[in-house]
Predict the structure.
Amino acid sequence: MGEPSSSSLFSLVSVLVFADLPFQDSESVALIRGTNAELGVNLGSVSPSDYMELVGRVSSFESMAALTEAQWVMTDGDAPARIAGLQTTAGLTENWRLPPVLGRSFAEGEDRYGAPDVAMLSYGFWQRQFGGRMDVLGETLRLDGSEFSIIGVMSPKLEFASFANAQAITPLILNRSEPNRNERYLFVTGRLAPGASQTAATE
């Protein structure tokens, strides 16, 4: 039996989910969650395969982004320290219209295999670990033995929910040839296209 189509796998949680959060035009930002309508099961998070299929075929959103929680051992400083963070696809801050306060966000292609290792800092981590220095861009952040070039600092408005504990943010690199739809670990958001309705987005 083949895989169900994404039209039967996904539903749009009310756009009011984000209405009280500090996004520009937040009433157009929605959480996309996996469902199995036939079984009446809410699958919650989304698999990478389903996310990439959605990006390629759903026209009711002008943009989509995915993220997942992460942890690393940071070896900068006097002693190794475990830090919490997030991995995101390129375009998340554009999707939410919350540009970095310093530097830039991830560019298209930096979330693909072979791209240079880059990272953003949360605003709080930038203040605590780097003293809020404006010359932090281009410095190296050593995470799990790899060197990441710091390219930006997230807006302090992003420090809610999973972002509240995040210290570093790195690109989310997805295996685009992986067909397994049972590994669901992505949190997916989308911004409705102008004129698109919530009803149309779930069809």
Summary: Confidence is low (pLDDT under 50) at residues 1-8. DSSP finds five helices and eleven strands in the chain.
